[in-house]
Design brief:
The chain has about 500 residues and is mainly beta. The protein is built from five helices and 34 strands. The protein has a 15-stranded mixed β-sheet that branches. β30 and β31 form a beta hairpin.
Length: about 500
């Protein structure tokens, strides 16, 4: 990985200040000053020049604002400690496939990406319209100084950057009205960059109105940290939609995930995947994040004839299979909570998944914590699930797991329902139903997918929420799921990014 990084051309170049790759307009006369590929001053050259040396890392220092325009990102570009890079609304950053480019905000650095509903900031594939695929470039990584339960960590995916510290209120900048498309290049096994990776990002950071589409790994992954997020979308990702690890304890409200029934990961794809850490160790801070007003639209809700089998002709990658080493697998659950995680979710809706909830008891004490009230799963509605719950990873049966054998295979008591489904049904406000009862609409928004997500007038979802006992920074709305009567997706989202001319 380090050899790959050192050989990669790490550069950032502006193509134009309009949305045409063929036009190269005159821009302010500003220049970079570099020393061995390291940026030493805070000026830029905006005339199509490549910035950085092909055999050296490219590290941005100082403070600079990129005027609205279309730019090419090449290789791994770092925003260093003390640096601040601001992107104006309407800016487009195209990731280069040949150099597997990524933008990495290091501890103490700031990215100010404040778009607007009418002029979002877009990070997307540099490939031509119509031929973009998951994993065309690396992705966006933000690292901060907030706590995690491993103290100091190397960020997942390969870059040099570490994250973690003791400043819960750390500020890594702004990500608002931003789209991230076709990211997540798989550098190696368990070395994929996600669409948006957040390592120990603090609560001083602003994250809202972010859409991650066609990521080649998780759409979002939080490794520790305290950042709060609102209005986030995971669209047609490869692996998990929202992955929480290493003591993430922020508040997240209003989230939508929609799955392409042709795309699932070999590790089994979930809406939530939540760990305290990889081995389930009982170390603090625990993963105690609280999510409210989430809507998970699963593969069954998108395709009425869906079969959860790679041999059945459904999970084949479709036109978005990147042929880059990513392995296709099957869909698993709307929510998988495991390895000592104490994740909380309230006032949320999941439709059309093979499994509703997995409280995995193999490692850590997640089930024990659930029994003791250490995690909250309330006012959650499940619709059109094959089964409500399972007690083990890759177990598609609603039976009680009583332990594990010497080969770490679950021991099943088929005479009793799973702990997970029993627990789910017993929690206040939880409901198992069918999508017909929900009175949903909205499918016309999606590119050829028959997925409804918004409650119509009279839907029981509109009055079903409760915030009793919920802590964190939340709007106390009345509805379950990501939407009430207002559609916060309007204006800034894009559900057909492959065919968009940037």
């Amino acid at each position: 990985m380090w050899a790959l990084a050192s050989m990669t051309a790490l550069s950032l170049a502006m193509v134009t200040t309009s949305c045409s790759d063929d036009e190269n307009t005159t821009a302010p006369d500003r220049t970079w000053s570099t020393d061995g590929g390291i940026v030493a001053a805070d000026n830029l050259l905006f005339e199509g020049n490549t910035i950085g040396n092909g055999d050296k890392e490219f590290v941005f220092k100082g403070k600079q604002t990129l005027p609205k325009g279309v730019y090419h990102l090449k290789g791994w570009v770092y925003i260093a400690d003390g640096a601040e890079l601001t992107l104006e609304p309407g800016t487009v950053i195209k990731g280069d496939k040949g150099t597997m480019s990524s933008l990495i905000v290091e501890r103490g650095g700031k990215l100010i990406a404040q778009g607007t509903a009418s002029e979002p900031i877009v990070f997307t594939s540099g490939e031509a319209a119509g031929s973009r695929k998951p994993g065309d470039w690396g992705g966006l990584i933000i690292c901060g100084k907030a706590p995690n339960n491993q103290r100091e960590q190397q960020i997942e995916g390969g870059p040099r950057t570490k994250h973690g510290g003791s400043d819960a209120a750390d500020n890594s900048g702004v990500l608002s009205y931003v789209r991230i498309e076709f990211a997540g290049y798989p550098f190696g096994v368990d070395q994929e960059i996600n669409g948006l990776t957040l390592g120990s990002v603090g609560s001083g950071t602003k994250i809202d109105h972010v859409q991650v589409s066609y990521s080649n790994d998780d759409s979002y992954e939080w490794f520790g940290g305290t950042v709060n997020c609102k209005y986030i979308v995971a669209y047609n990702g490869w692996d998990d939609d929202f992955d929480t690890d290493n003591g993430f304890c922020g508040s997240v409200q209003y989230g939508l995930s929609v799955r392409d029934p042709h795309i699932a990961d070999k590790s089994q794809s979930n809406g939530f995947e939540s760990d305290n850490n990889a081995d389930g160790a009982l170390v603090s801070p625990y993963t105690t994040a609280t999510f409210s007003n989430m809507t998970f639209v699963g593969p069954k809700a998108v395709s009425a004839g869906f079969v959860n089998d790679t041999e059945a002709g459904h999970i084949d990658g479709g036109s978005f299979f990147p042929d880059n080493g990513s392995g296709l697998g099957v869909f698993q659950s709307a929510m998988q909570i495991r390895r000592a995680s104490r994740l909380n979710c309230v006032n949320s809706l999941a439709i059309g998944w093979p499994i509703g909830l997995i409280l995995d008891g193999e490692r850590g004490n997640t089930q024990e914590q659930a029994q003791a009230g250490g995690l909250m799963l309330r006012n959650i509605w499940f619709a059109d699930m094959d089964i409500v719950g399972s007690d083990a990873n890759k177990l598609y049966e609603d039976h009680l797991v009583t332990g594990y054998d010497a080969d770490k295979q679950p021991i099943i008591d088929a005479t009793q329902p799973s702990f997970s489904s029993t627990f789910f049904r017993a929690q206040s406000g939880n409901r198992v139903t069918t999508s017909d009862e929900l009175m949903l609409s909205g499918r016309s928004l999606f590119n050829g997918l028959s997925a409804d997500f918004m409650p119509q007038a009279g839907s029981p979802l509109l009055t079903a929420a409760s915030f009793a006992g919920v802590t964190g920074q939340f709007d106390k709305v009345n509805y379950v799921g990501a939407f009430g009567t207002d559609n916060w997706l309007e204006g800034w989202t894009n559900f057909d990014p492959n065919n968009t001319a940037y």
